[in-house]
Design a protein that fits this description.
Elements: H1 2-22, H2 28-32, H3 37-42, E1 45-48, E2 55-58, H4 61-102, H5 113-143, H6 149-177, E3 184-185, E4 188-189, E5 191-192, E6 195-196, H7 205-230, H8 233-242, H9 250-255, H10 264-279, H11 287-309, H12 324-346, H13 349-358, H14 366-369, E7 371-373, E8 386-388, H15 399-429, H16 435-468
Antiparallel strand pairs: 1-2, 3-4, 5-6, 7-8
Amino acid sequence: ISLWAVTFLEYWKRTCSALSHRWDCSDFQEIEERPRPEFTAMAPMTVRNPVTGAEEPYFPEEKRFNRTLTGCMVIIIMMTVVLMFLIAIILYRTILTIIIYNSHDNFLSFSRIASISGSVLNLLVILMLSRVYTALAHILTRWEMHRTQSKYEDMFILKVFIFQFVNFYSSPVYIAFFKGRFVGYPGHFNTLFGVRNEDCGAGGCLIELAQELLVIMVGKQLINNIQEFIFPMSPRLREVKKEEGEEVSPWEADYQLLVCEGLFSEYLEMVIQFGFITIFVAACPLAPLFALINNWVEVRLDAQKFVTEYRRPVVERAQDIGIWLPILQFITHTAVLSNAFLIAFTSSFLPRLYYRYTRDSSLSGFINFTLATSPHNYSQHHTSCRYRGFRDENGENTPEYYHLLAVRLSFVIIFEHVVFFIGRLIDMMVPDIPEEVEMKMRREHYMAKEALAENQVWWNRSKLTDFHM
């Protein structure tokens, strides 16, 4: 999947360069893009454009920088709110687990009810915070007074993505890399607000991570598809009922359709999905399958929505997909590191491999190898308990713990170097601009120079003729 993500982005660059050349948008942002109407109306002064020589509205860069810093502080505050909700959900799961453990009800003793209900609650919190912050990001980006529409959209997208990245991925990251790491050991358990830190289930954290991903990703997709199917139809149905029995002309009926607000939500949905199927694919190999099924459905829903429920959108030129491409590249690099750490530290792949080559190739006794014995002073009823870890009877780390740590870190370094090296090879082998498009661009550049030279010769001849006359 990591190599697929790198290859996908390389071939997207080729497609993007071909489309921008075909639609004559290769130099749109640098030369042709005009200031936004809102910026023109609110800018406090004007300056001469050094490229075009025309007077254009201007907003001081110092003020914009200060406003951008203020926006960054708001983002940090909102990310802190996300982390507070995450801690609240962790405490909820821990307390509910204690209640279930002390209950004798057969239904409540279901081992997954705490984690599943916590995942559903986390999904609801994520969707609620997303709506609040998107509206806030619109206000902040308008306040920053960006000159062009491309710059405005890039800054708005960046704000929303940073927040959504923390909002959607904080819980899976916690389960993958932090849950069960700071529990302690019998007799010396660590606590959070007086409650013992939660540990992974008997199956390990990888199963819980897969469950969390499926609940958040599939649940988000279902809710979005339902919203896209029902919400656009509601105003339309109200208008139909209102004008039932009246003859309405086609252009009046079209005017009653919803206004298309752009493709931001569509892009954001795909980028968040791209993160789910790449960053955590080692824990949930079914994620790409669910994404594929969702996209089949999404294509038909979007076709229905844009053709029958929305007005025809106003065409806007763009050089490329803007800041979305660097965001996808960031997700791809993050996915390589994330999967390396997932395989090394969260899965049992390396401990099994270590045990196979140092103890028993048949893996006989592997479970006992991964379990430690509680200290003597913790033993109750003259019996000792076992827990997951590589510690001796005094609670100290064993030599096997440090051997495995070295193996894990070595695996991470080798894994990411191999994947990044292959990705670099793909980058070198697949040029960003197709050869056919590059030849067309050279030909157009040559023809432009020839036309300029001919025009210069004609102008000189006309001047000479005027002089003799």
